[in-house]
Amino acid sequence: MKLFSWNVNGIRSIYKKGFINWIEKENPDILCVQETKAHEEQLTEELKNIKGYFSYFSTPEKKGYSGVALFSKVKPERVEFNLGNEKFDREGRIIKAKFKDFTLFNIYFPNGGMSTDRLKYKLEFYEEILLIFKELLDKGEKIIVCGDVNTAHTEIDLARPKDNSKVTGFLPIEREWIDRLLGIGFIDSFRMFNSEGDNYTYWNMQTRARERNVGWRIDYFFISENIKNNVSSAKIYSEVMGSDHCPIELNIKF
C-alpha cells in the first residue's frame, strides 16, 4: 500500500499546476493533503471526485485558511473530522480514518510563528493529540500519523539549526514533543531508512531557499511500533514542485 502526504499550500492553486496528473502518475492508494485553503463548495468537480478515489474534506470556519483532505482508493470504515475540542476543531486540521488494518491521522498541525498566543495554541494542540494517540496505543491500535507537524525534530532536520534555535518550529519545547511522541511508541518512518541530513520537505519561497536547499524537514509519516515490520520504504520527493512543501511517501504492507 502506497501512502502519500503533501502540504499543497492551496489545493486550488496546485490543481492548476498539474495536481491531477501527478496523482495519476504516482497512483497512491491513499493521499493525505494539508493546507487546502478551500471549502468543498469552492472546488471543481474533478477535484472533489478524483476518479478512483473516495474523497473527504475537513474545512475551517475561516475561508482561505488551513484545511485537510483525504483521497483513498479503499473506503474507510469510519471517518472523523475533529478532536472533540471546539477550540481546535474550528480550524479544520484533522481527518481520522479507520481502515481494516490501521487507523490513519491526516493532520495539519498549527504553526506557532504568528504570535505567542499561536505558539501556546500549537503546544496545546500537541498535548491534546498526544493524549489521543496514547489512548489508542494503550488499546493496541495500529496507527499511522502523517502531515505537516510544523517542527523539525533534530539538527539534521533543517539546514541552519544554530540560526533557528530560538525560532518557532525548532524550539526545544516543540522538539521535545516529538521526543515524547516517539517515547510513547511511534517511529519516524523516514529515519528507518535514511539517517542523513540535507533531506527537507519545506523551503521558504520568499528567500528562494529551495534553489539552495536551505530547508526544513517538518512533514512526517509516524507509525506505531506495532507495524514497523510492515513498512518497506519511506521517501521524500524533493524534486516535485507546486508548493513550498514537497510530497512524502510511505510504503506499507498488511
How does this structure look, described?
The protein has 254 residues and is an alpha+beta fold. It has a single domain, classed as Endonuclease/exonuclease/phosphatase (Deoxyribonuclease I, Chain A), CATH 3.60.10.10. It is 24% helix and 26% strand. It has seven helices and 14 strands. The chain has helices at residues 11-15, 19-26, 45-48, 86-89, 116-138, 172-183, 209-212; strands at residues 2-7, 30-34, 54-58, 68-72, 78-80, 94-98, 103-108, 143-148, 186-188, 202-203, 215-216, 219-224, 231-236, 248-252. The strands form three sheets. The chain has a six-stranded mixed beta sheet, with no helix packed on it. Strand 7, helix 5 and strand 8 (143-148) form a beta-alpha-beta unit. Helix 5 (116-138) runs parallel beside helix 6. The longest helix has 23 residues, at 116-138. The relative contact order is 0.16.
CATH architecture: 4-Layer Sandwich
Q: Note poorly predicted spans.
A: none
Q: Could you say how many structural domains there are in total?
A: 1
Q: Average pLDDT across residues?
A: 97
Brief overview, please?
With 254 residues, the protein is an alpha+beta fold. It is 24% helix and 26% strand. The strands form 3 sheets. Strands 3-4-2-1-14-13 form a 6-stranded mixed β-sheet, with no helix packed on it. Strands 5-6-7-8-12-9 form a 6-stranded mixed β-sheet.
